[in-house]
Every structure is written in C-alpha cells, then in structure tokens.
C-alpha cells in the first residue's frame, strides 16, 4: 500500500506556510498564515513562541488535515527562521520572546568582545565563520548581561523548528545545520558541539542532542495530538532552518549548486565538497548527513519592497509592473539596501540604507526599481565573495513572481537562473525531508522540475556593470555617516523608552 501524504510546515519571518504533498511530489493542499514580528527597539526583532510559532503551526496543520480527509499522513517535517535564541527552562517553557537571526543586531558589543577573547582566526578555523549578528553565541552573552534573571533560569536552547519538535514529540533535539550557525558553540570539522566555548557563552544550559534534518526525531505524543489533530505516533523529523529546507526543495544538493532565495531577506546557499570557510560568509553543515554548505545573507531585501509598498500604497503587482517599465539604472538612482544593517559580505550591524541621486522628478516606480536593483547588486557582491557563479543558480521564494526582480538579478550578475515549478518551497522541502526520513527515496528532479530559465540581457548588463562599480564605492564613502546616524537612532530609542 502506498504511504499517505506528507506534511511540511515552515515558520518564516512574516508568515507561516504549510503544504500537504503526495509521495510523488504532487502538492495536494496549501495553507498560510501571516504573523507579526515584534520590533521593540531599533535593531531588535523578536517572535513570541506560543502566539506566533505554535499558534501558526496548529492553525495550518488543522487546515491541511481537513484537506487530507481520510488520508492519514505518513510523516511531518518542520522548518523555521534561524538561528534564533529562545531560552527555556528545564521543562522547555520559553522564558522570553525569541531573539531572531541576523536581522537582530543587538549583540554588537558582545560580538566584538567574544572575538577578542577567542580570536577571530581561531573562531573561523573551528566554527567556519567569524562572529556576526547571525551568530547565536553573542546573543546568549547579551542575555546574561542585560537580562540576568532570565539567563539564570535558562536550561534549554530552542529555535523555531526545535521548539515545535519539542512540543510535538517531547524530544529536545537540534539539527546539525542549525547548530553549525550557533557560532562559537559548534565545531564544524568535528561535527559536534564545542562544549568548552558553549559553556563560556551559555553557562548552565544543557545543549540539545544533535541529529540530521532528514532523520526522525520522535513521534507525536497523545497531548500534542489533542492540541493539533495529528495522529498519535506520526513520525516527526528533526527540522532545520527554513532556507536550507528551501534549498532541498529546489534540488540544490551537488557541490557548486547555489540557491538564491527571494524573501524578506535575500539568502544564498552553495553546496560545497567539505568545510570551506570564506571571510565574511558562513560555512555550515548541510541538511543531509555529512554535507556542507557556504551561505550568505542580506539583512533586508523583500522587507524594503514591503516598506515601500506601505509608504506608497497600492499592491505588489502594481508596483512591480510600474518598476518593470523603468529603464535599467532607475533613471539615475542608486540604493544601498542596508536598512537593518548588513550581514554578508559586509558584516556591519550599524550600516544604514542610502538612496543616492534622488530628485523631485523621481516617483515611486523609480524608487521601487532602485530597491530591486540595490538588492541585485548585493547578490552580485555575495556571489563574488563565494568565488563567482558556479554550477547551477536556482531562484526560489516569493520574489520570483512576476519575473521583474529575477530579470534584474540575472542582468546584474550576468548569470542564468533556473526557476523551479515550486518556488515557495521551505514547506515543500520539509515534506521532501519527511519522505527521506520515513525511508522513501524521492526523485528530487521529478518532485520539482525546472519551469523556466531567466537569462541576462547583455545591453542591460553593461549598464549595470557601471552602476555596480558605484554601488561598491557607496558603502565605504558613507560608512562614517551611517554609523553616526545609527548611534543617534539608538539614543533616540533610549530617550523614548
């Protein structure tokens, strides 16, 4: 008898998404639920685990189970934003809202402090990446310094996926990939926790056992079954960070394959043959046993376009259509998209956005296109740091819709992009990982074939080469001003508290 369908649920920055997928890769049902992200201070981004993660998960699961009818699911996998820091007590109860990944830049002083204590080169050699706002370790130290009462009660370290797995199965487990982003707490080459450095930044915390995202972590308990409607005993995988589940969904598995995810933040993942630390980027473990990857992430991309939409009104389709009619170069506008600091390859939480060349003759179409072009220049900068395009470049995420943004990126980078059939695929990738976990051997190419190839236009690419040169010069030319303004923003926030 053929196994039942597979469930995949992903907890993103601004929404949760879920899919019900047949064992042949056919999507049987979809569900989504928006949720808020708290920003209590400039540079702070938080989620409440109960009202955002768990409520979103249970809502989506019940909707998908209704669509499943009498078909009993065969497996479940979850993914989520990461790395995040959710401190919990010995019973796994959250002690405060979760501190999010690299968009949360509160731990700048702790990054500098730990780098000086441990040595940047030693950290890179052992952990694969220099400390940045993406790392979880400095945020643990921030917690001890600024919220000592919470830190004193902390006994567990949870992320979005591991929190859900704990609620569903009772298991305290984290996947190797997520752990490898917890610098300086994980030894990349040893493939295990760096116990001495973990104790230094998170004293008193019992670290979760490690497993791979394609492995079963446990099964749904009777209590979780009542809360979610899931069947008791349903296998649940270990879970992972959303971007890596997305890469799995797009078949990015061979060394050299690169995924470019268009979302609230722009994210790139390249598979590597082994550990490959690169200054300014993140070397991590992958989702399949023994695998490795190199990653880069911009702090803002789709978040800027969403901000512009809120300022201007209208909907995304209208703004994208207007931007598509503006010539390359946005009629003389150049945007530095560091609206929440930057992660890679410029690890600067105090960087700020810049719009150069603005005149009263520019309108919302030019500003919107300048935002798309600015993020495209950031993609080119990150690809250059990775060593340039190599293997396949696969485009996924909500920003692939309409093809204007993907066209700009191909023109700026002079690179083909393969767009698969399923482009919003973290939840779809979860379902794929669930299939592996329960012993199936799905054909990834058959699950998610390439639907389109976006190719660069040489004429526009020539124009963008000139703009990219100026883009690279804009940050060093404005960094002192940006840092001054970032400090003023902090002072203003302090006064308003």
From TrEMBL:
It comes from the Bacteria. Residues 7-244 form the Carbohydrate kinase FGGY N-terminal domain. Keywords: Carbohydrate metabolism, Kinase, Transferase, Xylose metabolism. The keyword DNA damage does not apply. GO terms for molecular function: kinase activity; phosphotransferase activity, alcohol group as acceptor. Residues 261-437 form the Carbohydrate kinase FGGY C-terminal domain. The keyword Nucleotide-binding does not apply. GO terms for biological process: D-xylose metabolic process. It holds the Pfam family FGGY_N. Belongs to the FGGY kinase family. This is Xylulokinase. It comes from Amycolatopsis sulphurea. The lineage of its organism: Bacteria, Bacillati, Actinomycetota, Actinomycetes, Pseudonocardiales.
